[in-house]
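Recap from last week: sequence in, structure out.
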Amino acid sequence: MSAMTGDTRSMPLPQLVEDTIESLLPDLMEFRHDIHAHPELGYEEHRTRDQICTALDAAGIEHKTGFAGGTGTIAHLPGAADTAIALRADIDALPIEECTGLPWASRHPGKMHACGHDGHTTILLGTARVLKRLSEEAALPNPVTFVFQPAEEGGGGGEKMCQDGCLDGSVFAPRARAMFGLHGWPSLPLGVVSSSPGPMLAAADHFTLTIKGLGGHAAMPQTTRDPIAAAAAIIQSLQHVVSRRVDPVMGGVISVTSVHSGTTFNIIPGEVVMQGTVRALFTEAQEILREGLAQTTDLLAKAHGCTAELDYQVGYPVTSNDPDATAQYQAIANDLIGPEKAPPFELPCMGAEDFSYYGQHVPACFFALGLIPDGQEAMPSVHHPKFDFTDQALPIGIRMFCGLALQACPD
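Predicted structure tokens:
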């Protein structure tokens, strides 16, 4: 039984919290627009880090920086309990050319905050400022650790933050007993939050497969060992690994997303290079897919007189929500947002998140924050050049984080 087991009662937020959120909103929106205009890729977030630290200094919030290669920051507010509630935001951007046309659009060609990390960062900073104001009136029930993490977009910054002690009490804050994180969700309406216990986001590995054969004239294929024919057979057969080796209740994905070979129409090339991803919501399924990929590529390459060289890179693990941490989240969401605005996360998503690493160390819960503005039926999805985080979602995220930090939960 996890350390989160116990009283799941939540508490209404003090009026001071609500008033502070409202008073800070103009400043927080300006902060988000500023870092949106200056996006930085993973492990390059030096300006973003400096802006976060400047804001923490101005609020009188203790913090240390330089984690996870230099751009990670941990802030802390003391509280009455022996262990802390940890809250996380990711701070990096994506290598995408922005096409929003907004006044605060990216000023750096080929880089943009296309996944909403500018919103996540602003919500966590706003939460720290609100709770700091509350702590000036009375001691917080829980110490709170604020984790500003670099390099979520493929860089594994969450794993490095854990390795650097953001949760174990070795930095300057007490050991964390639970971790919570959020992600702006452009398929949910504004005002809605959603999560569920168990797997929420998939494990995501990637691979590069090189098929080597013997090239030659396209009019005389019998003199060659055609790697393109081998690659075509492999691509088709990989779907049988998914449909015939993995329990269909578990499911999984093998997607070949890049195929490169050849130079012209009448030459059979000597090799084909393919790339792709392997994803599943259960570790057992991921291992079956990994093994099936290796076996299928090797045997089919040999059947075509070729060889296969597989470079398989293990990526983020499954983001699986702890049942007790999720019960805490749900109780607070019901109280602060309302049960009708806090439905279960209907189906897991095959996207991946390095929030998963925190759940390997402490009970953790990740939840979705609705972004579709009022009066709209849809909005651009994340990783789209026209995506922009919805400012009106900022107070909802701050309210949820404050509720989670102030929750009644015994050590």
